[in-house]
Amino acid sequence: MNWSGSKLALLRLCGWAFAEDHVRNVPRPPHPALAGGSNAHAGLARLVQLAIDDEPLDVRAIAREVTAGNAAEFADVLGVLTLAQEELAGDPPLFEPRDVIYIETRLAMQLGPYTFDGQADLVEARGKTATVSDWKTHWRPESQDAFEADVQLPRYALLLDANHPGRFERFVLRKRFVRYRGAVRELVLERHQLELVKWDLVQEIEDAERRMAAGAFEATPGDWCTICSRTDACPRVREFLEHGLDLTLDDDVAARRAAETVRAIDAHSARLKARLKVYLGSDHPTGRVRLAGGSFGFGPARHKRASVSDVVEVFEAHDRPVNQRVLRVDVDELRRSLEREPGAVRRAMQAVVEEYETADCRYRRGDGLEDEEVQEEPTTGGT
Ligand code: SF4
């Protein structure tokens, strides 16, 4: 098998999901979060190419092209592209079109008997420095510690060096969280540091080969279950559906196993909720179905949001130090932080916090559905 960063990462996270993808070759069902990520990547690649060709950047046209008319996906990718377009005009810009040497290009290298390949989203070259950018569509930017612990970008640097021996002395490695303005993690690697990166990669591939030989593909639930498209077939979910959760928790081993199972079940349940949202949110006459004691369906949900630049402006206008934590614009965090600020700052900040409503699917107790035109559930048998 050819190894890549994504295959090794999947094997590290969940052996069972890896085996479905790469050993048993079971087609992977779609997952909304993965569709959003691949649309954003396709849209950004198109935007980079248009910038290189000095063509107009019509982000709506690009979003339409990559989402093929899916309204929800269009809105999502349009948000990402609009932000990217703004940052392209920023200082420093998102990238320098004249320096780009690779857009989503797969590079491969030989490591003894093994082939390793990987695809960087964007590579720029200036003199002896290569800048590798990876677009991340996560809903939360990761911490600098998590970024530095991630082996993905140093391995891209290794691939670049193998394909351009001696051309680069320094590698600037960047993750851009493309849903957030200016959310970038960056580190610099010197060429001599690649030896260690290579050693670590070979160790991991040898370990992966041993697992392949032993057929050791256990399902190991964790954070990653939220983007797994195989929750319905996952052995940990099926075990629960068929036998229930063993509630005997008398040691940490049992507690750990129960906690892992709960994560897989949560991910499975989230996928079911997403399906319900699509069903009830499309042509359904009421957007709700009856449940015992109430109903489930769309209802208004109130939120608050604030623009980062407006928040910074308020702090600066009042000559107050900017609390970096609020720049993630967690409005609850912002509210707590404001409790320590003078009244004038609190009042000015309230003016930049916008309240808005969305429709979310949720349970509503005894909500008078009897007054509405309800779509009856189908009955079986009889006439
Ligand atoms: S739900 Fe989690 S544990 Fe189950 S297959 Fe997917 S990633 Fe693995």
Structure summary:
The chain has helices at residues 5-13, 15-22, 32-52, 59-67, 71-88, 144-149, 152-163, 194-214, 235-243, 252-281, 308-317, 331-338, 343-352, and strands at 3-4, 100-111, 114-126, 129-136, 170-177, 184-190, 288-291, 294-306, 353-365. The chain has 383 residues and is of the alpha+beta class.
Explain this structure to me?
45% of the residues lie in helices and 21% in strands. It has 383 residues and is of the alpha+beta class. It has three domains: 3-30 and 95-206, no CATH class; 223-274; 288-367, no CATH class. The strands form two sheets. Strands 1, 2, 3, 4, 5 and 6 form a six-stranded mixed beta sheet that branches. Strands 7-8-9 form a three-stranded antiparallel beta sheet. The relative contact order is 0.09. Residues 370-383 have low confidence and may be disordered. It binds iron/sulfur cluster.
Number of domains: 3
Computed structural class: alpha+beta
Order of helical and strand elements: EHHHHHEEEHHEEHHHEEHHHE
Tell me what portion of residues adopts beta-strand conformation: 15-25%
Number of helices: 13
Report the sheet with the most strands, covering strand number, pairing sense and barrel closure. 6 strands, mixed
Beta strands, count: 9
Bound molecules: iron/sulfur cluster
| Percent helix range | 40-55%
End-to-end Cα distance, whole Å, is 58 Å
Over the alpha carbons, how many angstroms does the gyration radius reach? Answer: 25 Å
Assembly context of the chains: single chain
